[in-house]
Write a structure and sequence with these properties.
By secondary structure, the chain is an alpha+beta fold. The chain has a domain of about 90 residues. It is built from one helix and eight strands. The strands form four sheets. Strands 1-4 form a two-stranded antiparallel sheet. The N and C termini lie far apart (about 125 Å). The model has no long low-confidence stretch (mean pLDDT about 80).
Length: about 140
């Protein structure tokens, strides 16, 4: 190999290496699922502690088949409701819509008025605390 060809090859390989390192890599994975999910499974819903809600289980696509993802308890968001995971059919394909919190238009804030305590409750006339020098207790 001639020295000029060796230099040319080296420069060409450096140019190719530099151009691939500088170019951003864009990758997109698209999976079309044309098999509908199995029927919904029924789960025993536990008794919920106040402040928690139940997110039902759903079918998830795993490689080449569906797997069941069990339901779970979640901390409740005030003024929102949980919209569960679901599958939608569009044409011949199925698309999973992930569960999410939706604003609850029917949610109403209920303010509870705190009952005021009377200033002089249980002191027999209101002179409690005024018995110091010069005051007699007349009972």
């Amino acid at each position: 190999m001639k020295p000029s060809n060796a230099v040319r090859s080296l420069l060409l390989s450096m140019l190719v290496a530099a151009s691939t390192a500088a170019a951003p890599a864009f990758a997109q994975v698209s999976v079309n699922i044309n098999i509908g999910p199995p029927a919904q499974q029924y789960e025993m819903v536990p008794v919920m502690t106040p402040g928690y809600v139940w997110a039902p289980g759903y079918w998830a696509w795993h490689g080449d088949h569906y797997i069941w993802v069990r339901g779970r308890t979640m901390v409740q968001r005030v003024g929102y409701r949980w919209e569960p995971d679901r599958w939608e059919q569009r044409g011949a394909n199925y698309y999973r819509q992930a569960g999410r919190w939706e604003h609850d238009a029917n949610y109403k804030v209920v303010k509870v008025k705190k009952e005021k305590n009377p200033k002089h409750a249980n002191n027999g006339g209101g002179n409690k605390g005024k018995q110091g020098k010069g005051h007699k207790n007349e009972h």
